Here is the input.
Amino acid sequence: IRHPDMPKAVFKLLWDRIQNKEEIFAYVINKTKNGNSYWVFANVTASVDNNGNIIGYYSVRRRPKASALELIAPLYQKMLQAERSGGIAAGAKVLNDLLKKEGVSYDEFIISIQQ
Here is the structure.
C-alpha cells in the first residue's frame, strides 16, 4: 500500500524505468494494512518473455541503512511539499536539483548512500 509520505515523483521514476526495461533501485516507504509503515531499499526490474515483452516485475527488497534514511526521509518530505503545490514535476525537480548539485546521476546517488 503506497504510503502518503512516498513522493509520487519517485513512483513515476520507478514505473518509467521498469516500463523501459531498465533496472532501478529506490528507497520506498510502505504502509501495512494496519497502518504501520516500513522502509525498504528496493531493486526492481521487468521480467520479459523470449520476445522482449514485459510479463511481470521482479523486486528484491532489503533493509535500508539508517544513514541512508537520514538523507532520504528529509528529501522525500521536500519533494512532497513541492508536489502539493506543483504536482509530480515539482517533486521531480527537487530530486533533480539535488542530483545536479551533487554532480551525480540518480543511480550513483542511490547506490552510494546505501553502501
Q: What stands out?
A: The CA atoms of residues 88 and 113 lie 24 Å apart. DSSP finds three helices and three strands in the chain. The beta strands are 24-31, 37-48, 54-62.
